[in-house]
Amino acid sequence: MIFASVASCNRADNSAENNNTTASTGVIEIDSANITQYPIQIGYIPPIKIQQSVQVNGYIEIPPQNRATVYAHLGGFVKEVYVLEGSYVKKGQILADLQDPHYITLQMEYVQARSKLEYNEKEYNRQLELLDKNIGSKKDYQVAQADYRTAKALTNSLAAQINILGLDTAKIITGEIVNHIHLRAPIQGYIKFVNVNIGKYVTEQEPLFEVIDTRHLHIELKVYENDAYKIRKGQKILFTLQDNITSKYEAEVYLLGKIFDTQSRTMLIHAHISEKNTTHFLPGMYVSAQILVNNDERPVLSSDAIWEDMGKMYVFAYGNINSKIIFTKTEIQAQKINDTTYSISADDKILKQKIVLKGAYYLISEADRSAE
Questions:
Q1: What share of the chain is helix, strand, coil (3-state, %, to 5)?
Q2: Which residues pair with 256 in a beta bridge?
Q3: What is d(CA 28, CA 309) in angstroms, rounded to the nearest whole number?
Q4: pLDDT for the residue 321
Q5: CB neighbour class for 269 (10 Å; exposed up to 12, middle 13-18, buried from 19)
Q6: What is the pLDDT of residue 25?
Q7: Would you tell me how many other CB atoms lie within 10 Å of the CB of residue 245?
């Protein structure tokens, strides 16, 4: 590789008389003795690893198992509210108390059903014993058996309802009847919304609280159909938040959707956030992301090596004949990677030749000056 140093303007002007520049043919001849006056770099086009990416958008979300909506299992009036929106709660923590006469009625029905069950169980066992001794009738035994099974089913049904309300059947049997129930947090996390106030009557169909656990945030991204084939599990993602585009965060592709949205022609991508501290991330935040899909090695040129003329791209191929250095304007097929970098096709013949890698501008100026 040849590196030429920058010389003074006077020397360059004087030496121009010894150079033969033909702008029309795209050939520039320079005496070997004068080459050091041009700040150019000559060599073969180097291969460089190019990171390709797919630009996508999406939102920060939480998985369904980390989001819980709290309903009243049985309607009632709000007696107390213990949390506010944004409050952190532990699993099982009381969010509010409800009260209603129905709660008392349900407990009384359970006590009565339990008492009747005990009676029916004894009667069933008595009739079974009589039948075994051939004393009782089979009909009486069947009636006792049916009554016992019915009483047992009713008792178990009421017990299940009471357990859903969070009441203790063991205490109820001893006579501890309460007029209110607790609404508890099903998971730990933060209260997203509160839809209750003291004195309000709530029904079983009305969402009262939502709790979100932000320890397992993820990103949901939409990839367009023409880029979907590039995405693979495990690929690295760089993303920014809409309110802070200067800070970049990392994530990783975890799941690929199997169904395309027929309207938007996109596929859903599920990605895990690599950051350990996610306290500044909130569900619903908009993100702009780049999925790093390839890391190919390609021949690459800087824009300093390329001459664009009439919509075509050229480089200066290097040659040496006797005491003359010859630069030949040669068309290439280049693909723009960014504002300063271009990739060259791997089968381009120019890869086997030395070219001007830097400083093509000075040769262009030389050609323009000689043409005047």
A1: 30, 40, 30
A2: 269
A3: 16
A4: 82
A5: buried
A6: 58
A7: 9
Instruction: Output phi, psi for 238, to 5 deg.
Output: -110, 130
CA distances from residue 38 to 9, 87, 131, 314, 367 in whole angstroms, order as listed: 10, 69, 119, 19, 13
Please tell me what DSSP assigns to residue 58. E
Q: What's the pLDDT at 327?
A: 86
Phi, psi of 82, rounded to the nearest 5 degrees:
-115, -5
The one-letter amino acid code at 278 reads: T
Q: Which residue has the tokens 């059903």?
A: 113
Largest CA distance in the chain: 138
Amino acid of residue 329: K
The SS3 assignment for 5 reads coil
What local confidence, expressed as pLDDT, does residue 135 receive? 83
The answer to whether 264 and 35 are in contact (CB under 8 A) is no
Q: DSSP assignment of 295-350, as one string? A: EEEEEEEEGGG-EEETTEEEEEEEEEETTEEEEEEEEE-EEEEETTEEEE-TT-GG
Tokens encoding 299: 């021949």
The DSSP code for 9 is: H
Predicted pLDDT of residue 86: 92
pLDDT for the residue numbered 8? 34
State CA 166 to chain mean position distance. Answer: 37
Residue 342 CA, distance from chain mean position: 31
Beta-carbon neighbour count of residue 275 at 10 Å? 12
Give the span between the Cα atoms of 256 and 253, in whole angstroms: 8
Give residue 46's pLDDT: 85
CA nearest to 69, candidates 172, 236, 177, 204: 204
Q: Which residues of the chain have pLDDT under 50?
A: 1-18, 21-24
- 107 within 8 A of 171, measured Cβ to Cβ: no
Dist. CA 13–CA 275, nearest whole Å: 59
At 144 the three-state DSSP class reads: helix
Query: Do residues 205 and 71 make contact, with C-beta atoms less than 8 angstroms apart?
Result: yes
